[in-house]
Amino acid sequence: MDLREVFATNLRRIRNAKGLSQDDLAYDAGISRSYLSQLEKGVFYASLKIIEKLAAALDVEPAEFLKPEKPRAKAR
Predict the structure, then answer these.
(1) Planar angle of CA 6, 46, 31, nearest 5 degrees
(2) Fewest CB atoms less than 10 Å from the CB: which of 13, 37, 46, 68?
(3) Could you give the angle at the alpha carbon of 12 between the alpha carbons of 6 and 70, nearest 5°?
(4) What pLDDT is attached to residue 69?
(5) How does pLDDT run along the chain (76 residues), one tens digit per residue?
(6) 70 near 10, Cβ under 8 Å?
(7) Cβ(10)–Cβ(42) under 8 Å?
(8) Total number of domains constituting the chain
(9) Is pTM beyond 0.85 here?
(10) For residue 49, is it within any domain?
(11) How far is CA 32 from the centre of its chain?
(12) How many C-beta atoms surround the C-beta of residue 61 within 10 A?
């Protein structure tokens, strides 16, 4: 998984955990919903300014977007 996919996965996961729609987050971050959708699909790279806006709107540290997913334990 490349860094863009890690960012997209974490962005979507955090937004859903906060109970926000794409429309709500886009409004809070001051970006368009279509741009947010493309970020969540991993189509676009996010600039540092966009990461800063999204982190502020979601009340998380910017580094949260770049943390790789931890492997899940296998079921026995």
Answers:
(1) 120
(2) 68
(3) 45
(4) 78
(5) 689 999 999 999 999 999 999 999 999 999 999 999 999 999 999 999 999 999 999 999 999 999 987 766 666 5
(6) no
(7) no
(8) 1
(9) yes
(10) yes
(11) 14
(12) 10
* Amino acid occupying residue 48: L
CA distance 29 to 41: 18
Q: Where residue 34 sits, what CATH number does that domain have?
A: 1.10.260.40
Domain hosting residue 34, numbered range: 3-62
Query: Quick check: is 11 in a domain?
Result: yes
| Residue 13 one-letter amino acid | R
73 lies in a domain?
A: no
Q: If you search the block for the tokens 């001051």, which residue do you land on? A: 30
DSSP the chain: --HHHHHHHHHHHHHHHTT--HHHHHHHHTS-HHHHHHHHHT-SPPPHHHHHHHHHHHTS-GGGGGPPPPPPPPP-
The amino acid at residue 34 is: S
